[in-house]
Design goal:
- By secondary structure, this protein is α+β, with helices and mostly antiparallel strands.
- The chain contains three helices and six strands, in the order βαββαβαββ.
- It has a six-stranded mixed beta sheet.
- It is globular and about 45 Å long.
Length: 160
């Protein structure tokens, strides 16, 4: 048997005011768009703001459905919209923020597995990393320089 060791590195910012100015603005938009989430079942609201290389910012919030698999997370709403509206633009940064209607969310909330796979598709397609910043409703913010930190064994087109 052989073991594989995987090391990942994240930067941790103590709060929004510690972020670079451009990322502060992006995170503020992610926080604001959380209010548009349709989350009657989970009561868990997520906002996502994506900065593209053309300077455009694309927003998304989670949209639930009584048939759970039919809903979409904020990250996929935003990334699919970016791909639809600006198919040739590269995604530079993604800011994600989550809050709960019934209990506080005080820890950074990373993208779920389905969102990680969707982000991976775009990172591979554009052949450049996507910086991801994620937080709860306040407090610490984690920064990953690439989706590869969150999903080191990516499934992609080379396997098909």
């Amino acid at each position: 048997m052989k073991k594989i060791t995987i090391n990942t590195t994240f930067s941790v910012f103590e709060g929004e005011s510690d972020l670079p100015q451009e990322v502060q603005s992006l995170m503020a938009q992610a926080v604001a768009i959380r209010k548009n989430a349709y989350a009657p079942y989970s009561k868990f609201r997520v906002g996502c703001a994506i900065l593209l290389d053309n300077g455009k910012i694309v927003l998304g919030s989670n949209q639930e459905n009584a048939a759970y698999p039919s809903g979409l997370c904020a990250e996929r709403v935003a990334i699919f919209q970016a791909g639809s509206l600006y198919p040739d633009a590269k995604i530079l940064k993604m800011a994600i923020s989550a809050t709960g209607d019934e209990k506080p969310v005080l820890e950074p909330i990373p993208p779920c597995g389905s969102c990680r796979q969707s982000i991976a598709e775009y990172e591979i397609k554009q052949e450049s990393p996507i910086e991801i910043f994620f937080m709860g409703e306040s407090g610490a913010i984690y920064q990953s320089e690439s989706l590869r930190n969150l999903l080191p064994f990516m499934f992609d087109k080379k396997f098909l």
